[in-house]
């Protein structure tokens, strides 16, 4: 079987707000949108945001690699998201992980290359 594309779908109580968060925070490009779902491309990956969610805190499994986790976490918060776990130094090294959530409670990780 030939897989044509892989898309990871998350839910949002407010589709427009969630799409705007990913656009503003991660530079996501909306590649398809209607009243039910928006598909966004981030670094070659496709995330579908489906409306009709309950806005509850949900772990997604999404991991986004950025150059600076501390700066990235601050940007998540500045754009309406939040932190489950703030970036912390480990063994004297700069933080490599921040546990975050978007405007609709979808949890994701920010990581840096180690």
Automatic annotation (TrEMBL):
Pfam families: Glyoxalase (PF00903). This is Glyoxalase. It comes from Luteolibacter yonseiensis. InterPro entries: Glyas_Bleomycin-R_OHBP_Dase (IPR029068), Glyas_Fos-R_dOase_dom (IPR004360), VOC_core (IPR037523). Coiled coil: none annotated. It comes from the Bacteria. Residues 4-113 form the VOC domain.
């Amino acid at each position: 079987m030939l897989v044509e594309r892989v898309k990871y779908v998350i839910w949002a109580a407010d589709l427009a707000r969630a799409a705007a968060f990913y656009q503003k925070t991660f530079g996501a490009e909306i590649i398809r949108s209607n009243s039910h779902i928006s598909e966004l491309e981030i670094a070659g990956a496709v995330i579908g945001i489906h409306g009709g969610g309950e806005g509850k805190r949900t772990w997604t499994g999404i991991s986004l690699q950025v150059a600076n986790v501390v700066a990235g976490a601050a940007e998540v918060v500045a754009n309406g998201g939040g932190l489950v776990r703030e970036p912390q130094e480990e063994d004297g090294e700069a933080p490599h992980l921040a546990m975050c959530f978007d405007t609709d409670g979808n949890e994701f990780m920010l990581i840096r290359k180690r």
